[in-house]
Amino acid sequence: MKQVTQLPRHMRANNSVAALPLLSFACVTVILGTWVLSSLMGTLRPSIIPPPWDIADAIYTLAVSGFAGHTLQTHIITSLGRFAAGFSLAAIVGIPLGLIMGWCAPARYVVTPFFEVFRFIAPLAWLPFAALWFGTGIGGPILIVFSGAFAPCVINTFHGTRLIDPVMIEASRTLGATSWRLMVDILIPGAFPSILAGLRVSAALAWQSLIGAELIAATSGVGYLIVQGQGSFETSIVLAGMISIGIVGVIIDALLRLASDRASRKWMAAEA
Amino acid sequence: MSEILFENVTRRFQLKNRTFEALEPITLKVAEGEFVAVVGPSGCGKTTLLRMAAGLDFPTSGAVIVGNREVTGPGPDRTIVFQQFALLPWKTVTGNIGFGLKCRGVPAAARAEMVAHYVKVMGLSGHEDSYPYQLSGGMQQRVAIARSFILEPKLLLMDEPFGALDAQTRIEMQEELIRLMSVRRRTVLFVTHSVEEAVYLADRVVVMAGRPGRIRDIVSVADIRRAESWDSRPIEDILEMDSFVRLRTKVWRMLRGAALSKAEGRSRELSIAS
Questions:
Q1: What per-residue string of b and e applies to B197-225 under the rule 16 or more CB within 10 Å gives b?
Q2: Which element (helix H / strand E) includes B138?
């Protein structure tokens, strides 16, 4: 008799799925607990990793009296400003470029060779030029953020245009759509979900690159805060900075996901 | 003038390292106001023929002439209805139906009026602001047909338009098409897999054979259709009429013949190979 194939456990419908978020919670608790306990017992020396309460204290002190010239909030806001500038610049240039590549084949062939090479160059490799061209001005970090955020904007937008059903494009052409109409009514809305997904990837890379840039060439910002913490052997300040980076990153991503979920609900439903 | 003329049309596709003859020289004329259905096995080139009339594909040799002008691309005199509907998912029913008019620069007010008319004609009232995914397959195809008809094309090209619909909806749509055609006669080139559909709808049924694609035979239905006034009878009556059954069987035999000769050819190839 032929045996009935069973789905692997994680694919079977069951009620325990509701309990899965608890697993995240439990895991975090265990790790935090181990950290607290080993700090208390002295197995984990503060010079390796400072105890959690030192970090909480550091965050509090940073927020109230500041470090490296500014409070934690000001450092974060400075970083966010640079991030926003570089990220929007990447979106403003990258999305239209991706659309044009999807729209007209010659543009695709003009851009691709440069693009294929440039996208493998890590954003931080631009640092010497950022310093050369912009000195210590705002332009440097923006350039770094831009170079991190640019490629995913272009690639996702371009792939979004390629994912559009060719029949839809043919139908529009027989209905009399001009190239301009194709761009406005087919390519842009058709690539929209991909564009939003690209922006999320791009934001994550931008935020990472920015911190990298601030570690080396800046006199403010969260990255600078970390370097200064390192310079004065304040590991709890370093960790406070790292945690801020993580949390701000999560918030940026959550906001973008919220926006993209909202905007693409119509599109996603259409694909289903 | 809206007749279609395929003049010694061939089409060769270049696959990786071999060429594929999709169409042998084909000559076919669809007269003004005539409804021609094309049936044939998959891959016989019937859709290619239709795409060439639409200006979405071009012959390797020969010419496709619509109304005395050689086809060089899509034109305002021709619209096409696809099996996959090909509606714009981000536009409402109204937006989809009016899209062609918008492309042609018809002002919004005039557009709204015409769209409203076709919404009513196609039985889409109440769904004006729905998105395609909210509609059934039949409804979606109604939108696609409305989007074509609103442009008043002289030539209507239909590529298995009802192929993706369930049997009942399919019959309703066939009747609907007959009704729309009786309101205003148009030249139609209609590609289908269904012999029944072809005989029920068309004035002439072109039977094609595959590899390479060629016309095997043409069956004329127009005289019987007119003599027995099919267009004013319900479809279930026609489906059991002797004349209909005879024509359907005739087309079926031709198709089978086309398939058989293909199978013979293949077995001959096999024997040569072994």
A1: bbbbbbbbbbbbbbbbbbbbbebebeeeb
A2: helix B137-149
The boundaries of the domain holding residue B169 are 4-77+153-273
User: Number of folded domains in chain A?
Assistant: 1
At A226, which CATH number? Answer: 1.10.3720.10
Going from the C-alpha of A76 to that of each of A71, A207, A261, B79, the distances in angstroms are 9, 11, 26, 57
- Flag whether residue B56 sits within 8 Å of chain A, measured between CB atoms: yes
Per-residue model confidence (pLDDT) at position B269: 45
Q: Locate the chain B residue with the closest alpha carbon to A188.
A: B90
ipTM here: 0.82
pLDDT per position as a tens digit, A30-89 = 999 999 999 888 888 887 888 888 889 889 988 888 887 888 889 999 999 999 999 999
Q: Could you tell me if A145 and A122 are in contact, meaning their C-beta atoms sit under 8 angstroms apart?
A: no
Instruction: Show residues of chain B in contact with A186, CB under 8 Å.
Output: 88
> pTM here?
0.79
- Taking CA–CA distances from A170, the nearest residue in chain B reads B56
Q: Each residue of B22-60: pLDDT tens digit? A: 888 889 999 988 999 999 888 888 889 999 999 999 998
Instruction: Name which of A165, A168, A175 to mutate to probe chain B: the one with the most chain B Cβ atoms within 10 A of its Cβ.
Output: A175
Residue A26 counted as domain residue: no
CB contact under 8 Å between A175 and B132, yes or no, is no
